[in-house]
Amino acid sequence: MNIMDFNVKKLAADAGTFLSRAVQFTEEKLGQAEKTELDAHLENLLSKAECTKVWTEKIMKQTEVLLQPNPNARIEEFVYEKLDRKAPSRINNPELLGQYMIDAGTEFGPGTAYGNALIKCGETQKRIGTADRELIQTSALNFLTPLRNFIEGDYKTIAKERKLLQNKRLDLDAAKTRLKKAKAAETRASSEQELRITQSEFDRQAEITRLLLEGISSTHAHHLRCLNDFVEAQMTYYAQCYQYMLDLQKQLGSFPSIYHCNNNQTSVAPIPSASSNVIGSSALTSTSGLVITSPSNLTDLKECSGSRKARVLYDYDAANSTELSLLADEVITVFSVVGMDSDWLMGERGNQKGRVPITYLELLN
């Protein structure tokens, strides 16, 4: 027998086996043929494996979304992974925000209160970005990779053996059907021999599948350790972020209290506004006896022709010759001028005089 004849006979046998399985499967679905049921333990293992596969995929995909919210970036990383190439390093969102803040603070002037605060915030955002990058790398290595290895490795092997078990069962049931239909003694003897062979192959495949499925418990134990690693990585990340923000808050806490406002907006932001001429929400007395200007006090100052002393809350660089530069904590004289913008007062320091923003001042009693 030459190789061609052998291949033809093998193809014919395979076609016959495939046809026999198809007929058996169809008749089972139509209720015209009996089906050998798997034992309850094996069915339970199969259900557990399928459940593990489904939820592992969902957890893995959602973790990827959590670590990388940008879908385009995820696709790019997937392509590079399939090509076995390292994805190019890209700046993440906290790092980009931090860089914008630093650039803006530098442009506004590091010597100004707002510029200095922006630079400090930017540096903190960049630290958070670095921590975020470390979280992604650690989680991908210790959590996502083991989950992916199960889906693409262990479960694919289980699925392959499960498919073989299904085929062996169809062969077994087809042999049972042929035995029932056999009438001649010779045909019946041949059918009985076929049944013994298919039963043996089915039992052997069921045992192989069972051994693989019982490994799911070990998979759960391994994934539990990986989950602990993921939680630890998140804990480290959030602890770092908290410490960074705590340090930043302490640094910003050195700025005047006028910077701070709660969710009810009971104080006014330090940026001059055309719609507001209020420095504070009420007359707040400090331990030094200073009073932040209330709406009524500011109105009195605007309407009277007299002058008042005011303490400078933080540095201010004059934008032009009509304005007066200010230094934090110095005391100057201020007074109103008819026709001047409501957000400004006229300031006087010795022989120097110029416009000053009211939000940079604290009027004294």
The largest sheet, given as strand count, sense and whether it forms a barrel, is: 5 strands, antiparallel
Order of H and E elements: HHHHHHHHEEEEE
Strand content: 5-15%
Counted by DSSP, the helix tally is 8
Distance between the termini: 116 Å
What coarse outline follows from CA principal-axis ratios?
A: rod-shaped
Q: Could you please describe the fold and organization of this structure?
A:
The chain has 365 residues and is of the alpha+beta class. Helices cover 62% and strands 7% of the residues. It is built from eight helices and five strands. Strand 2 (331-335) and strand 3 (344-349) form a beta hairpin. Helix 2 runs antiparallel to helix 5 (113-181) and helix 5 packs antiparallel against helix 6. The chain starts with a helix and ends with a strand.
What brief labels describe this structure?
365 residues, alpha+beta, five-stranded antiparallel β-sheet, 8 helices, 62% helix, 7% strand, rod-shaped
In short:
The protein is of the alpha+beta class. Helices cover 62% and strands 7% of the residues. The protein is built from eight helices and five strands, in the order H-H-H-H-H-H-H-H-E-E-E-E-E.
Task: Spell out the blueprint of helices and strands.
Layout: H1 3-29, H2 40-67, H3 71-82, H4 93-108, H5 113-181, H6 185-213, H7 216-252, H8 295-303, E1 307-312, E2 331-335, E3 344-349, E4 352-357, E5 361-363
Antiparallel strand pairs: 1-2, 1-5, 2-3, 3-4
Helix pairs in contact: 1-5, 2-5, 2-6, 4-5, 5-6, 5-7
